[in-house]
Amino acid sequence: MKAERIGVDIPVYELSLIRDLWEGRVKKHKQRQKKEEERISKSALVKVNQQWQYRIACRKLKSAEVTALQCYLERSALGQTHLLPTDNKDNDADNKKFIFELNGKKWMKLPEDLQYMTYLKEWHIHGTRIPEIPAYIEAFVDLQVLEVPKNGLTKLPTEIGKLISLRELNVNYNKLLSIPPELGECENLERLEMTANGNLVELPFELRNLKKLKHLDMAENQFASIPVCVLRMESLKCLDISNNRLKDLPEDIDRLESLEMLFLHKNNIRYVPMTMVNLIHLKMLVISADELYSIPSQLVDNPNIKLIRLYDNPINTDDEDMNEMTIDAEAQDERDKEFMKTYIQTLQDRATQPPYTTKVSLSCLL
Predict the structure, then answer these.
(1) 4, 28, 194, 309: least CB-packed within 10 angstroms?
(2) 164 closest CA partner among 180, 179, 135, 144
(3) How would you classify the pairing of strands 284-288 and 122-126?
(4) Largest pairwise CA distance in the chain
């Protein structure tokens, strides 16, 4: 028998056909890419992306670089996007800030474009007739300074608690009736000023969370006592609560361990608690002395504390009576000084004597 040969058919193609096939596929792929690029170039997403890239780039630029960029944008299409930062030569080159400023009674509302400038780091709005801060301020998460004095504001928006980067807040000379508790969520706040709002009588307890607050100005309001939340601000260095309705100070005022300056003048304070001597960092105390009858001697004698006692309502007397009072006061001061010198010398003598001896060298005529 003859063996039958089993064969396998192998197709054979010319290389030119294979090359044409791949070149056709490559051509179609390039055509699809070109169409996609044309679609993207006509899309609004490109412009949005350019704007955001510009914002990101401006945050990283130094002052000289920002100036150069401004000169370039004045002749470029991006100059129409209203994203030019304000050039402030007083700022450090490495800490360029984006600032919005508005002044004058002619302004009764904020510009509509402001809500889109969420890259701003400072608001300075002075002496306008704008009645309130808009709720869209919550989008300004990079805002560090909010300065809005003398605008007639009657309230602050609750959305202010979203400003996690806020470091300074100035609402002086407005007509605020209260402070929103949400302000306590601005945990990076270092300076808070609310002078002369007239009707403020209390602060929300939530402000105790302002652990980084160093300066607090509450002057010219209606506070009858130092709010409890203030006593929980452990980093507070300067407290101004002058020209209010204070009559006494809390016994736990020594909670303010970092306090350096305390302004209490133009109040009716009668008594300064002994716990005040525990404020070891205290450098200045200003207080009205018209009704003051008790103050720790440690505060008076401490050379590291500048104690200023003001008399807001001096007594009107005749010149002769005033001269007599002055002479009597000087004589009393001399007697007091002589007594204290004798007393101190006695204490020194006691410290140098052996324990088995007793020495009495103090005599005084009362």
Answers:
(1) 4
(2) 144
(3) unpaired
(4) 159
